[in-house]
Amino acid sequence: MPNKLLGVLTGIAFAWVTGGAALASNNKAMDADIHAIELQWEHIKFDEDGSPNQFAHIDALAKFAASLAEKYPGRVEPLIWEGIVTSEEAGMAGTLSALGYAKTARAVLEQAYEKDPAALDAGAPTSLGVLYSRVPGFPIGFGDNDKARELLTQAVSLAPNGMDANYFYADFLMTQHEYAAAYKVLKHALSLPPQTKRPLWDKNRRAVMRELMAKAAAN
Prior knowledge:
The protein is mainly alpha-helical. The chain has a domain at 26-160: Tetratricopeptide repeat domain (Serine Threonine Protein Phosphatase 5, Tetratricopeptide repeat). The chain is built from nine helices and two strands; from the N terminus they run ββααααααααα. The chain has helices at 28-47, 54-71, 76-92, 95-115, 119-134, 145-158, 163-175, 179-190, 199-217; strands spanning 17-18, 21-22. The chain has a two-stranded antiparallel sheet with strand order 1-2. β1 and β2 (21-22) form a beta hairpin. The longest helix is centred in the middle third of the chain and has 21 residues, at 95-115. The chain starts with 16 loop residues before the first strand and ends with a helix.
């Protein structure tokens, strides 16, 4: 059963394609490994929702992501995805272990942030911002809305057409009751081209954004 402490961690999956073109690096083998993580993350997140094996599978994927960080030392992309998948573990784990996963994800993502905050459509600052927004604050956890706003604002600045950077910034604005601003950000995010290489992720992300946009319009 998803934990109550971090149950709001909805998973952080970042667009690997923008405008229909893959954000390829100069390492084709790494690109293929990263894309495999993306597709497996989507399958576990959406197709296995509610399955008793979901956590075991996300845990195995986190270990695979960590192995890629060792396989491609110095590259920021595997670190970002290790942080993303570990953040997902925090959302699926039991209450007693959830915060530990969140802290591990933060440490990994901070390494990625130091290397390149703009990489993968500002994946590091976006995912760090979500953690700071959704993890409880002191004395339970390290949550900090001021830090979250700073990171998510930076993410949108670095990746103005990044779907997840915009979505998670809008989601944060909703929690702060800044509905008009959230609506504007969501409208822009929904106008972005479909992510044809990741249709499952694109479909689910857009559905969530439309729901959030309707709530913003109603307030």
